[in-house]
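Record 1 of the preview.
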Amino acid sequence: MVANKPLVLVTGATGFVGAHVVRHLLELSRYRVVIPVRSMAKSSYIKERYASEIASKDLEMVSVADLSAPHALDDVLKRFQPEYIVHLASPYFTTTNDPIKDLVQPAVGATRNVMTSALEYGAPALKRFTLLSSFASVVDLSKNPRPGYTYTASDWDPVTEEQAAENGFFGYHASKTFAERLAWDLHDHGLNKELPSPPTFGLVTLCPPMIYGPPIHYAPGHLMPKSIEELNTSTARLISGITGKDPAFTPRVATPGLPAWIDVRDIAKAIAGSLTLDPARNERILLCGGVDYFEDGLGRLRTQNISGLGDPGDKCDPSNHFDIDRTKMRDVLNLQETIPFEKTVEDTFNAVRGMSLV
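->
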């Protein structure tokens, strides 16, 4: 370990995206990483996977039972004084009888607590706060598929709390929209709407569409999924789509009417860039790897005589859908090229096949 390596605090580190972010940050060999976990016992696989990094103090875990509890991170920030915070922890599912309780409140509560701790105890060390938001906070569902329109960082999902209470789909959109708006409000105006001066740290929010890619947050003997349905939400949707087993999609796309996507490994790169690149400070940045239907990603697999592939449907005609402005992604984050959909689909399928689920 290099003693003066800057420290990154990553919430949600044990999830689908978080696992890739932690791995990427450690592979860069430029950072130390600290991750809050709900249960040290249930995180034993992290100790096994990163034994050398833990031994060198490049990775540390700290117990935080409930990130949505007030002041949950106060002591962590006081103790570690991180230079960077990456806030990923937020629920992602759409099947619920109480979207406000299960989706909106946890997302907003966790964001409020992490940002509050950052404002109260981040100085003088904290330089950048990156929030992983979502294209769900950008898109106007009432206007889908909106051909010819290009969404930019100035667009906001107009979802209301009344809509959020209707079902999990609207609830998820509301959870991301409300949480991101809160982050900007707290950063720009302070805890009591009165900031004598702007905070010393910059805020970056990243808004990706569906995130696909090989899951690496599972480990043999540690919460391994027993079926496709037990996979993380986006991986389950992708596998169900390319095997033709999900009748809900007509045509079967990433999400009905929302065919945009990006690879989780590109998300990790984007987050790493957001921490230190000067132009990213106080920016809202849309991310996108492409606009594709599931069939568009099956080229490599279809040449390998793999059994189990279904007939997901037609290939995508981008002119039938909105587009996403990628200017900031390329110019601000220097993410000029992203992983092709065929590579994403192939790697995801092979990872899930390695779990004997397909």
